[in-house]
TrEMBL record:
Domain of life assignment: Eukaryota
Protein's UniProt name: Proton-coupled amino acid transporter 4
Pfam families membership: Aa_trans (PF01490)
An annotated GO cellular component: vacuolar membrane
Gene behind this protein: slc36a4_0
Predominant localisation class: membrane
GO MF annotation terms: L-amino acid transmembrane transporter activity
Topological type in the membrane: Multi-pass membrane protein
Domain Amino acid transporter transmembrane: start-end pairs: 32-245
Annotated InterPro entries: AA_transpt_TM
Compartmental location: Membrane
Length: 250
């Protein structure tokens, strides 16, 4: 794991006067992304094809509960992203470091916090890294299955016979690995833009057919059961969560 420099570990007393430090003017990136490119990445990460699972989420929560709960989950996700960015900006100036990863922010926040928290900084870093790994390993696995399922349906429709779903997942392995080897978000911006356009087109077509012959709203339950609400919560977070991407730019 990457070690955090010593200057990040220094705790600044409130009585100390710190000269103004602008991390964005001091930041020297070889291939910085523009605001438009950053927005493209955030849209791709936040509003992915997980939106297609929202009808199932509303089925689990009920229409009325689903609307208010979706607004609440959206607010929580946005607030958490905002808090992460604000904390990172504060720590940039305190430690005079121009950029930090999500795990760096967690570690440095504990290292510059109360005395009881300073010894937990390294543990906190590992904890955040493991949570990010679990989150995005699961997310990418689900998206791989979604992509393979779409190819499977197209193949079956046009060829007239089926292949094992795992065969399509194996075929996707090489292009996915090659995309993962692109180290720079600047180079991935055109890919994200094309993906956003294709996703918007696909969602538009899907919503068109979904909204045709919509049944009466009174036929749908307004409230869901408590047992299925966790499923709603998971699907909603899956559809809009992008905390791992937020701090890469800001």
């Amino acid at each position: 794991m990457k070690e955090v420099p010593e200057n990040r570990q220094k705790t600044l007393r409130n009585s100390e006067k710190v000269d103004y430090f602008d991390p964005f003017l001091e930041r020297n990136l070889e291939h910085p992304t523009t605001n438009g490119e950053t927005l493209t990445h955030l849209l791709k990460a936040s509003l992915g094809t997980g939106i297609l699972a929202m009808p199932l989420a509303f089925q689990c929560s009920g229409l009325i509960t689903g609307v208010f709960a979706t607004v609440f989950v959206s607010f929580v996700c946005t607030y958490c992203s905002y808090s992460l960015v604000k904390c990172a900006h504060t720590l940039y100036r305190r430690t005079r470091v121009t950029s930090m990863s999500y795990a760096d922010v967690a570690e440095v926040a504990f290292a510059n916090g109360p005395k009881w928290s300073r010894n937990l900084s390294s543990v906190t870093r590992q904890y955040v890294l493991w949570l990010l790994f679990i989150t995005y390993f699961g997310t990418c696995s689900v998206y791989t299955v979604i992509i393979a399922s779409n190819f499977d349906q197209l193949f079956t429709y046009h060829m007239g016979y089926e292949l094992n779903l795992r065969s399509f997942i194996a075929m996707l392995l090489i292009p996915l690995i090659l995309l993962s080897y692109v180290p720079n978000l600047k180079y991935l911006a055109p890919v994200s833009m094309v993906a956003n356009l294709l996703m918007a087109t696909g969602l538009g077509i899907t919503f068109y057919y979904t909204l045709c012959d919509v049944p009466n709203i009174s036929e749908r339950p307004a409230m869901g059961s408590f047992e299925t609400f966790p499923t709603f919560f998971c699907l909603t977070v899956f559809a809009m969560e992008a905390i791992g991407v937020v701090n890469l730019r800001y």
